[in-house]
C-alpha cells in the first residue's frame, strides 16, 4: 500500500513444497520482502514521493512465522527451511523490513486468495483503495 491505496499484489501457488504452514508463510514473507524492497527502490528512484516508510511492514497472519522471523534462535520445525530464505531474518535485524502479525479478519489480501462472504469482500477491497467500476459510471 502506498498513499492509502494498493499499488501491487500477487497471488500465486508456491513453487516450493514446505514442510509446515509456518515454513510456507515464512517463504511467502521472503517473496514479499524481495518484491517490497524492489518496489521501494523503484519508487524512490522515480522520486514520485518524498520518502517511503522504513522499515517496510509485511503483515503475516501466522504467529509462528512472525515469531521465527523476529527471533535469532532456530527450532526443530525450522531446520528444513532452505538457507536462502533466512535472509528474511537478516532483513528484520537490519531494519529493512518488519514482519508483523495481523489477524485473519484484517488481512486485506484475502479477497485475492480465497472466497469471502460479500460483505467482508467489499470491506477489504474498500480498504485496499479498490473502487467498484459501477461507482465510476
Structural write-up:
By secondary structure, the protein is mainly α. It has a domain at 21-103. Helices cover 43% and strands 7% of the residues. The chain contains six helices and two strands, in the order H-E-H-H-E-H-H-H. A two-stranded parallel ribbon has the order 1-2. It starts with 20 loop residues before the first helix and ends with a helix.
In brief, what are we looking at here?
This is Copia protein. By secondary structure, the chain is mainly alpha-helical. Helices cover 43% and strands 7% of the residues.
Strand content: 5-15%
How many H/I helices? Answer: 6
C-alpha end-to-end distance? 25 Å
The averaged pLDDT comes out at: 81
Shape type: globular
Return Rg in Å: 16 Å
Order of adjacent strands in the largest pleated sheet: 1-2
Summarize the amount of helix as a percent range: 40-55%
Element order: H for helix, E for strand: HEHHEHHH
Unreliable stretches covering 5 or more consecutive residues: none
**Based on DSSP secondary structure assignment, what is the total number of beta strands?**
2
Give the oligomeric state.
Answer: single chain
**What would you call the structural class?**
mainly alpha
| Biggest sheet architecture | 2 strands, parallel
Organism: Cajanus cajan (Pigeon pea)
Protein name: Copia protein
Task: Describe how the helices and strands are arranged.
Elements: H1 21-46, E1 56-60, H2 63-69, H3 87-93, E2 97-101, H4 110-113, H5 118-128, H6 133-136
Parallel strand pairs: 1-2
Helix pairs in contact: 1-2
Amino acid at each position: 500500500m502506498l498513499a492509502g491505496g494498493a499499488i501491487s499484489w500477487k497471488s500465486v501457488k508456491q513453487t516450493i513444497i514446505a514442510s509446515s504452514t509456518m515454513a510456507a508463510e515464512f517463504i511467502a514473507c521472503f517473496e514479499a520482502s524481495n518484491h517490497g524492497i524492489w518496489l521501494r527502490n523503484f519508487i524512490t528512484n522515480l522520486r514520485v514521493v518524498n520518502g517511503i516508510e522504513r522499515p517496510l511492514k509485511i503483515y503475516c497472519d501466522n504467529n509462528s512465522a512472525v515469531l521465527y522471523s523476529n527471533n535469532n534462535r532456530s527450532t526443530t520445525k525450522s531446520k528444513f527451511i532452505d538457507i536462502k530464505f533466512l535472509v528474511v531474518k537478516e532483513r528484520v535485524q537490519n531494519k529493512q523490513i518488519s514482519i508483523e502479525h495481523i489477524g485473519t479478519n484484517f488481512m486485506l489480501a484475502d479477497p485475492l486468495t480465497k472466497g469471502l462472504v460479500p460483505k467482508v469482500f467489499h470491506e477489504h477491497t474498500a480498504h485496499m483503495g479498490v473502487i467498484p467500476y459501477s461507482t465510476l459510471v
